[in-house]
Amino acid sequence: MKLDLKSVDQIIGKYDGEDSWLVMILQDVQDKYNYLPECALGRVAESLKIPLSRVHSVATFYSSFSLAERGRHLIRVCDGTACHLRGFTHIKEEISRHLGISEGQTTKDKVFTLDVVACLGACALAPVMAVDGRCYGNMNAEKVRVVLDLYRREKRH
Amino acid sequence: MISTAGKKDTERIKSVQEFQGKQAYSRSKFYSDKVRVSVGAGTCGLANGAADVLAGLRDEVGTSGLDFLVRQTGCIGYCQVEPVVDVLAPGLPRVFYHYMSAGKARQLVRAIAEGDFHPDWALGRLSRDQLLVRSERDFSSKPNGLSTVPKLEELPFYKAQLKIALRNCGFIDPHDIEEYIATGGYSALAQVLASIDPEDIIDLVEKSGLRGRGGGGFLTARKWRACRQAHGYPKYVLCNGDEGDPGAFMDRSIMEGNPHAILEGMTIGAYAIGSDSGYVYVRLEYPLAVENLQIAIEQARAYGLLGPNILGTDFSFDVEISRGAGAFVCGESTALMASIEGYSGEPRAKHIHTSEKGLFGQPTNLNNVETWANVPVIVNEGAQWFARIGGEHSKGTKVFSVVGKVKNTGLVEVPMGVTLRDIIYDICGGVPDGRAFKGVQTGGPSGGCLPESLLDLPVDFERLVEAGSMMGSGGMIVMDDHSCVVELARYFTEFLTRESCGKCTACREGIVRMLEILEQITCGKAVREDMDLLDELCCYVKDNSICGLGKSAANPTLSTVKYYRDEYLAHIEQRRCPAGVCRELTKFVVIPDRCKACGRCVKTCPVKAVRGREKVAHTIDQDKCVRCGACREVCPFDSIAVA
Ligand SMILES: Cc1cc2nc3c(=O)[nH]c(=O)nc-3n(C[C@H](O)[C@H](O)[C@H](O)COP(=O)(O)O)c2cc1C
Ligand code: FES
């Protein structure tokens, strides 16, 4: 597959081609393409004049980077301490049952990817999940289904 | 890298005198003759529906043609009762409303327009404008028809609190620098630039006794001085907003709700140290914190409070944001610096202090968000004022996020030295649903779990370490008798295996081996000798790791083994998890005498394992049951038990 890498160049331009912004450059690239395509990593290395191995080391070190394509909506279930004690497992299992995917997987229709993270910072409302950065607190099995259906319906519009 | 050009140069404050004029103007704007209605729209508020409330308010104010100001604020700390709306009306005490919805907010606005303040929905009123010592207006004597509404500062949740680091959070709009200035913001910086020498600021901070709130409790002044005295230019001033401790969210709340406090603190620190450049490192999961900080930085630049020649002096300082990408270890100082430099966040051994060679090999000073937020108050109120608060070696206040199995969850800021019992019971109302208190976990993955017998422990840096835990960033996760401490130790250890960067063997391999044993225990496959092996491993990892992650990785295990040995032995010898959490060791049964056949568990069970008809005690099909315990949590009659 051939990707248009113009966006990568724009992102690098925004950071004045400074390699110290590598972590944020990769975040912006991922925001743009939804994952880190191999060819984009190559372009980043080339433009910043740094070895591809360094780009790879960063892309694989930080847990938010994905080298594989992901779904349109990213579900993050919180397994921070508060959520862990207040029913993280129920929430994760309910999502898995409802979507037929487990941690780190993407649904066949490429709508959802399920990730587990440690703490979304809304611990007082545990258990918490987030979809595309939006947090939902005091979750239970029923609310999980309501929230997921909300995003699923959105897709058809 | 981000566009900074002072597009509104007219706003630029060119001298300290001009700043005072700005302060007076901002005050008159904040306490204007208009009604100001705001919604707590931090991450926690938003997760509870604050966006709908805000939309409802805006719409109602618009369609009713009211001349009200609608604002968003951060979180007042009482996350449990969100969404929260507050009303600041001319001549009246500020009133806070809890459990709001879009519909209630609309009604409230209409009622207020008619002069009815809906006291029945109010959480409390403020007799002073803020919960901190100083305030503009005092309403203690004239409640104006709101006398049935309790004073906010007298509610059990707030009574013992003193908001220094959390001042303004939930009280001002973080997107408006003038609201910060109106409530005293940047006055410390103005004073410093006008009349205090850098060395004297360090002395002032030293006298205050301020210690870092990022976990270790290092003396802040000592770090600043080392960096000031280090040779090299440029020097960097950093803010640690990585908040990796899962269960702690005070730094998020400050970054979202009062970002200027951090910037002001950093600017004062930079002046004291002799630095002109800084970074705030924010964890990935906090997009709103990044957004609000970015807005704050741009506004501060436009007002001449960041950037070249601050307030017309020859001192210059600027700040940029660096976003983390999901790595707990990046909260560690050297890993954080590696990450800002654009590398993997691997810590290095600190033979040379970062105060001499830190970011980009230059002298660097790193402090935590909460530490920075304390600085302006110390300048304003004085070192002695600050040093009078708290205990002997732990001065000032500390913010705790009290969450888990506790009635009032939220952020609590109290003078150091108050006891765990004060925090968990008096302020937060104890354990809900009539369950028994089992323990409290403090200090996150580097901390430990403290039992009921230690509830009267005064909370300060030293006491927590003596008890086998640590302050950490201030997470307090309360556990009841449905929480399993062995599973908790397993949970933290698993977390640490994932987050260990892998550089040193003790940490990379040792924690994995610890996890294997803990997994055996929670699965009922361990033998007694495994406890000794576990102990040995804990000591090995502790003594041989490079950075704090490994050095403290054994704390969750060691503290639970120390205080809850019986529970470990129950797992090993009786193959039983008393809390009913470890699935391989748990079997749930219905106690027929207690069951009122209400059917709630039948509806809740995700795998349809509970069978039941009306008026007949329910039963659980053990073949289908996945031991998730959902039925037990919903049963109002406590009729589901661990066999
Ligand atoms: C593994 C590890 C994780 C840490 N995470 C954080 C963190 O998330 N936030 C923080 O402020 N300090 C964290 N620290 C402590 C920092 O290294 C550093 O001591 C602190 O930010 C200094 O600020 P202070 O002196 O104001 O406390 C961590 C330390 C270690 C070893
Ligand atoms: S523990 Fe889940 S949001 Fe913090």
Describe this structure in words.
- The complex is a heterodimer of chains A (157) and B (643).
- By secondary structure, chain A is an alpha+beta fold.
- Chain A folds into 2 domains: 6-61, no CATH class; 73-153, Glutaredoxin.
- Helix content of chain A is 48%, strand content 11%.
- Chain A has a 4-stranded mixed sheet with strand order 2-1-3-4, covered by helices on one side.
- In chain A, strand 3 and strand 4 form a beta hairpin.
- In chain A, helix 1 runs antiparallel to helix 2 (22-33) and helix 6 (88-99) packs parallel to helix 7 (141-156).
- Chain A is elongated.
- In chain A, 44% of the residues are buried.
- The model of chain A has no long low-confidence stretch (mean pLDDT 93).
- By secondary structure, chain B is an alpha/beta fold.
- Chain B has 5 domains: 31-149, Glutaredoxin; 177-385, 3-Layer(aba) Sandwich (Rossmann fold), CATH 3.40.50; 397-483, Ubiquitin-like (UB roll) (Roll), CATH 3.10.20; 486-573, de novo design (two linked rop proteins), CATH 1.20.1440; 587-642, Alpha-Beta Plaits (2-Layer Sandwich).
- Helices cover 38% and strands 13% of the residues of chain B.
- Chain B is built from 25 helices and 18 strands.
- Chain B starts with 15 loop residues before the first helix and ends with a strand.
- At the A-B interface, helix 2, helix 4, helix 5, helix 6 and strand 4 of A face helix 2, strand 10, strand 14 and helix 18 of B.
- Flavin mononucleotide binds at residues 212-216, 218, 240, 242-244, 329, 331-333, 366-368, 371, 473, 547-549 of chain B.
